[in-house]
Design goal:
The complex is a heterodimer. Chain A is 20% helix and 20% strand. Chain A is of the alpha/beta class. Chain A has 2 domains: 8-130 and 242-281, Immunoglobulin-like (Sandwich); 140-237, Sandwich (Immunoglobulin-like). In chain A, the strands form 4 sheets. In chain A, strands 3-2-1-5-8 form a 5-stranded mixed sheet, with no helix packed on it. In chain A, strands 4-10-9-13 form a 4-stranded mixed sheet. Chain A has a two-stranded antiparallel sheet with strand order 6-7. In chain A, strand 6 and strand 7 form a beta hairpin. The longest helix of chain A is centred in the middle third of the chain and has 12 residues, at 119-130. Chain A is globular and about 50 Å long. The radius of gyration of chain B is 24 Å and the shape is globular. In chain B, helix 4 (68-103) crosses helix 8 and helix 8 runs parallel beside helix 10 (314-342). Chain B is 66% helix and 0% strand. Chain B folds into 2 domains: 4-559, Cytochrome C Oxidase, Chain A (Up-down Bundle), CATH 1.20.210.10; 560-604. Chain B is built from 18 helices and no strands. The chains are: A alpha/beta, B mainly alpha. Chains A and B meet through loops of A and helix 4 and helix 12 of B.
């Protein structure tokens, strides 16, 4: 299933229990758990796993494909376990998906959203990504940023435009503009960030992220106070595109998550027929009606 | 049944025990069959409890009845139990009891090996279940996909119990397979040609072939896993050049023949029940035999239809799509032949017949969704969703379990000499059948709407809450039906109506002898002249020979060594899990000692 030459290449990397997406054609920019695609442009998902076998499945867009860990090849041997899904999304919208092969404790919590945008919206999102927002000095988000950069957070996470450059956990650039956090488990809001930072294990059992009092994944607890947690949550929620282009791109109706695969589309034929507002996502949080980099 | 010992007045019978000791030392195929059946029933109850836990958790989205970790243990143990501790042994129970009687033998070919099989199976099951007491029940799914099952991602003892426990169970199954092949090939009554064997014996024959060829593949896969986990080899570890997909191939090379190991015995049962209650010989006997054998053969060439999403490439996907579709042909032949057997027959809808007819209906539904999976592009959507769960529960509950229920109602009078209650039986059937459809039919839609299998929770946004609740109600209905069944078994055992040798007016040889049969089965081995020895000419002579006073022949004595050998094998593995290299050596020495004594024990 060779991809067309003009295809948007998206590298999909499965992790226990979240999805990493990289755009090698755009300077290797990375995002997590919410993949942005362009309406009408073929996309080539190039998939492999960082740990165990996962399976990438967005029912409305295409059938699933396993995301395999790569055998470390002997010299001069190409790794053979990379899988591809090639498809052309033909309508905009947010499409729901989930890991489809049992991958450990929180397999059920490894969800994903595909955001299909027009080319202009996508460009706006790219620009926003490369001109990251920075909270005004003296505000609560600014305090949060300072805590984020001086505590354990930055060991594992990256936020574009800051000195947080960790690659173990999800890239958090523009995380405030995603519909959900924790791989689809919580609607994006300050309260959700607080809940997640305080005790990630309660949301996603087995997750490698330490809580404020419970360590995880071989790491000690972060030891953040309630006030610090609140500041960090405010900071993360503020990570939304600030550019005019992004604001323009965000104009439009309320987003709808189409997770119901009525007629499975073959990957070659591209995405399924538009299904306007088949289900309205409860994850369409207050933040989703504000001017974020969301499609429509 | 303990009185069977007293009936023996032939041959040399140096010592024989009574009561519990009799059951522990028995090498009588009938008692071993009953032991297998009782154990499998116990595990059916346990696996059912796990299913209820699963269904209760899924009653609401984001429910917290079970934690994620516990839920994962529940579905893993549910699968392991239902496949290895219920599905296979409950078929083996009927093989044990019925096959020697159907072919006119006094026992299986290796009665002592048969006892050893049972005890190894029992200790293997107990070994796996003991994991609950260590808070380390297997949690990697019954398919145990590498590399999730490796120590790196699963540091506890959970998957050690899985790898070692299945290894023990595999030994029992392989020994059972060898035994039944030898029995069917060598111990048939005079005149019982292969093409005069009852269909149930034929399906046992095919299943035994699958057992001895499929289980060793699983053994290899499990050895690799054990080596990886205990000694740091890297068979499935990609970081060191290993490959998790090797596990997938090995597991499904075992796993697909396994599916037919589970279903072919039920095909055999239904092929006995339907002719009896239609008062007609089986339609297209020869074709039924060939299609059963063909299913067994082709089952070796379809394993990668479990791997359409692995990324094997279009050629492999196309090949396995085609082979999988081909297997639907002999299966369809069987379904049509059962219907044709009933056509124009004098139908009697006893409980046994109801279960068989229900089996045809439910299994056909499972077969149809099976063909949908076979279409690989279709499978890319359905794979690993609840749609698959719906499919294989229709096949295994609708096929295997309904078949086995039919078989127990059918042969219970032979085993105990008493009839089961038809009233309770019909309650059992309807509760179970309705519950089953309520539980599994909505799962087709749950899967198509996007809920993957093995998920401890789901989001309300999927829109599957109502259907999940329906499925849960169905599961509880099945639990009620199971209790009715057990009550029927217990009640009928204590005060069922006397059955007589042939309560159903059936045609096959097991109904010639008394109910329950004496230890030696047949006074004289009857001479078989046709396929329906109790319906066609010579029936009187067959019955007379079967119930004649026994001549002078030797029945081997009971032995303690099978249970001791099995216990020492289990002990070896428990000691192995201590991670001290010298510990299992003690168990191994004990095992060798037991095997030596077992082998040297006089049987005269």
């Amino acid at each position: 299933m060779a991809a067309p030459k003009d295809a948007l290449v998206v590298e999909v990397i499965g992790h226990q229990w979240w999805w990493e997406f990289r755009y090698p054609q755009y300077g290797g920019m990375a995002t997590a758990n919410e993949v942005h695609l362009i309406q009408g442009r073929p996309v080539d998902f190039v998939m492999h796993s960082a740990d165990v076998v996962h399976s990438f499945w967005i029912p409305r867009l295409a059938g699933k494909r396993d995301v395999n860990p790569q055998p470390t090849p002997p010299p001069n041997v190409t790794a053979r376990r990379v899988n591809h899904i090639v498809l052309t999304p033909d309508s905009t919208g947010v499409f729901w998906g989930q890991c489809a092969v049992y991958c450990g404790a929180s397999h059920a919590d490894m969800r994903v959203r595909a955001v299909v945008q027009t080319a202009a919206e996508f460009t706006g999102w790219l620009q926003a990504y490369n001109t990251p927002p920075s909270p005004a000095a003296g505000t609560l988000p600014a305090q949060g940023k300072q805590i984020f950069e001086s505590h354990m957070c930055m060991v594992c996470h990256t936020v574009q435009g800051t000195n947080a450059r960790g690659v173990v956990g999800p890239n958090l650039t523009l995380v405030g503009s995603r519909e959900t956090i924790a791989a689809g488990m919580l609607p994006t809001s300050v309260a959700s960030f607080e809940k997640w930072i305080t005790l990630p294990q309660a949301v996603k059992p087995g997750a490698l992220m330490p809580g404020i009092r419970e360590g995880a994944g071989g790491m000690p607890p972060t030891g953040l106070t309630r006030d610090q947690v609140h500041a960090v949550a405010e900071y993360l929620a503020s990570l939304r595109p600030a550019t005019a282009a992004a604001a323009a791109a965000a104009a439009g109706g309320p987003p709808a998550v189409t997770g119901v695969p009525g007629t499975p589309a073959s990957p070659a034929a591209g995405g399924s027929a538009p299904a306007p507002a088949a289900t309205t996502s409860p994850a369409a949080t207050p933040s989703s009606s504000t001017s974020t980099g969301r499609m429509r | 049944m303990a009185t069977a010992a007293a009936e023996i007045h032939a041959g040399s019978q140096p010592r024989r025990y009574t009561g519990v000791w009799d059951w522990i030392t028995t090498i009588d195929h009938k008692k071993i069959g009953v032991l297998y059946g009782a154990t499998a029933l116990l595990f059916l109850g346990l696996g059912g409890l796990e299913a209820l836990g699963i269904r209760t958790q899924l009653f609401y989205p984001d429910n917290t009845f079970l934690s994620a970790e516990t839920y994962n243990e529940f579905f893993t143990m549910h699968g392991l139990t239902m496949v290895f501790l219920m599905g296979m042994p409950i078929s083996v129970a009927l093989f044990n009891y019925v096959v020697p009687l159907q072919i006119g033998a006094r026992d299986v070919a290796f009665p002592r090996l048969n006892a050893l099989s049972y005890w190894i199976f029992l200790f293997g099951g107990l070994f796996i279940y003991s994991s609950w007491f260590f808070k380390a029940a297997p949690n990697g799914g019954w398919f145990g996909y590498a590399n999730l099952s490796e120590r790196q991602f699963n540091p506890g003892a959970n998957m050690d119990f899985y790898a070692l426990g299945l290894q023990i169970l595999g030994i029992a199954s392989i020994m059972g397979g060898v035994n039944f092949l030898a029995t069917i090939i060598n111990l048939r009554a005079p005149g019982m040609r292969l093409m005069r064997m009852p269909l149930f014996t034929w399906m046992t024959f095919v299943t035994s072939f699958l057992l001895i060829t499929a289980l060793p593949v699983l053994a290899v896969a499990l050895f690799f896993l054990t080596f990886d986990r205990f000694w740091g080899t890297n068979f499935y570890m990609p970081a060191a050049g290993g490959d998790p997909i090797l596990w997938q191939h090995l597991f499904w090379m075992f796993g697909h023949p396994e599916v037919y190991i589970l279903i072919l015995p039920a095909f055999g049962i239904v092929s006995e029940v339907i002719p009896t209650f239609s008062r007609k010989p089986l339609f297209g006997y020869a074709v039924m035999v060939y299609s059963g054998a063909l299913i067994g053969l082709i089952s070796w060439g379809v394993w990668a239809h479990h791997m359409f999403t692995t990324g094997l490439g279009p050629i492999a996907d196309a090949f396995f799509t085609i082979t999988t579709m081909i297997i639907a042909i002999p299966t369809g032949v069987k379904i049509f032949n059962w219907l044709a057997t009933m056509w124009g027959g004098q139908l009697r809808f006893t409980t046994s017949m109801l279960f068989s007819v229900g089996m045809i209906a439910a299994f056909t539904l499972g077969g149809i969704s099976g063909v949908m999976h076979a279409t690989s592009p279709h499978d890319w959507q359905q794979h690993n969703t609840y749609f698959v769960i719906a499919h294989f529960h229709y096949v295994l509950v609708g096929g295997t379990v309904l078949g086995v229920f039919s078989g127990t109602y059918y042969w219970f009078p032979k085993i105990t000499g008493k009839l089961m209650s038809e009233t309770l039986g019909k309650w059992h059937f309807w509760l179970w059948f309705i519950g089953m459809n309520l539980a599994f039919f909505p799962m087709h839609f749950i899967g198509l709407l996007g809920q993957p299998r093995r998920t401890y929770t789901y989001s309300p946004e999927l829109g599957v809450t109502g259907m999940n609740q329906l499925a849960t109600v169905g599961a509880y209905l099945m639990a009620v039906a199971f209790l009715v069944y057990v009550w029927n078994l217990v009640r009928s055992l204590r005060r069922g109506e006397p059955a007589g040798p042939n309560p159903w007016g059936a045609a096959t040889l097991e109904w010639a002898t008394t109910s329950p049969p004496p230890l030696y089965n047949f006074g004289r081995i009857p001479v078989i002249r046709n396929r329906e020895p109790l319906w066609l000419e010579g029936a009187d002579e067959v019955v007379e020979a079967a119930q004649a006073r026994p001549g002078n022949f030797h029945m081997p004595p009971p032995s303690f060594w099978p249970i001791l050998t099995a216990a020492s094998i289990a002990l070896t593995l428990i000691l192995f899990m201590t991670h001290h290299w010298w510990a299992p050596v003690i168990g191994l020495a004990l095992t060798i000692l037991c095997v030596m004594n077992f082998a040297m024990e006089p049987t005269e």
